[in-house]
Fold:
Amino acid sequence: VNAGRATSRTRLDGPPPGFDACGCRTGPDQGRSSDFLILLVMSPSGWLLSLSPVTSTNTSAAWNDRSTNALRRARHQREDGLRRVRSITRSIAIASVTAAVAAGVYVSRALPGHSSTPTNTSTNVGVAPTPSGSSEVSPAAGAATSPGNQSSSSLSPPSNAPAQAQQPAPVVSGAT
Amino acid sequence: LSRHAVDSVRPVQLAVYNASVWSTRVDLVVTDPGAVVAATDLLHEVLEQVDAVASRFRPDSEISALHRAASAGRPVHVSADLLQAVALALRAAELTDGAVDPTVGAALCRLGYDRDFSLVRGGTEGVLPEPVPVPGWQSVTIDAPRSTVTLPAGTLLDLGATAKAWAADRAARSIASQLGCGTLVSLGGDIAVDGPAPGDGFTVGIADICGDPAAPVAVSIGSGGLATSGIGHRHWKLSGHSVHHLIDPATGRPVATTWRTVSVAAGSCVDANTASTAAMVMGEAAPQWLEQQRLPARLVRKDGSIVAVAQWPAEPSGTCSLDGPGNGAPAAS
Structure:
């Protein structure tokens, strides 16, 4: 059995029958197209051609395609615009954060007493991952302890330099 | 331990306590005389903790166990205290470009300093070893999350440059935080100050030898630490050669230093002692290095002349007395 399909469709320059200029349907039977199903049946007496009409409910496809395309184009344009705005917003946000971090680092290094990386807590040691997967201490990166508040990258100067004293000293610092 | 005195100095309301620990002098000063007994208990508690962790002269200490277990070069699990002590020593080495290196333990043992100094002072047998570089602090690995330390085979750690000062910092912090008084702890001249200090700060004499009552100069400090390193006290004879405990990592032998003593003030006792020890090893480069570190320091040459850097207070006379006790310091080998 060979089957074929022929479609008869009305080409319209204006609104199709049954539709007004806005593309709205004006009647229940309007706008239908006719389809024909061609059947070739091989029988003992030869080929039998059968042409059976098939009613289709395909409604105003051309008009719908046109309006759908217009809507799709508009949607794409709107999404493109939103995408551009989103990209610009993201760039501004990243630039702002980067500038703030850079300014913070610069200011923290410029201020006296803040010339090093942050100190660690009392029992922590700085840890840097190693290629082998283990974590090893970088001594200057974190051997800091709570007593004395040692900084990680330099020896910490005193908050005040020693002053000359005239009083008797109960304690003497010397070599041991 | 021997407690020599508990004494109150009335006008400034300071209570002073001193004792002898680790073959050296211990001083404690608190601003609340009523707290001195509790403060001494806290002090000795910290000293015992640090000794049990970091003394290489005690076979039952944790660092001795580390040396035994690490002979195969495998990671050894250690306590948080020892991990911190080793990390501090490595930090000191890194920040001084290796001048203060904790891997000098074997070099000190070769010089005979393998037991408490009270047993070494009288002299030791042996020969002056050939110059051999120490293994180097970079060969020591710490794995903080696993709390392990890895040493190359044959490496012995000596935490003397940092552990005593670390103990002073810990004790001062413990006393000040628990008793709420101003506290000064001095372990062999390594001084830590914490808590509310007296109005003018704590007065500290500076001398060649720790505890010398004839200290030629006095300064006051209100916080942080102050330490003095020198070769006038911890020296001994090795088969006729005069040697001391400050080791040059490049040779494994006592450093030929320019200075008789170096006193440094810093934000902590650990940092002060790290810097003073490094300055002794660095020699002529020390003043500039201390200036760069912004660490006030007083360096005394062997001839008694003084170099003051980074806002160390000026002294009326430009030189120390050559008749002082430090004059007997040995010439560095």
Remarks:
- Residues 61-110 of chain A form the longest helix (50 residues).
- Strands of chain A lie at 2-8, 33-43, 46-56, 127-129, 135-137, 163-164, 171-175.
- Chain A touches chain B through 47 residues (CB under 8 Å).
- The longest strand of chain A covers residues 33-43.
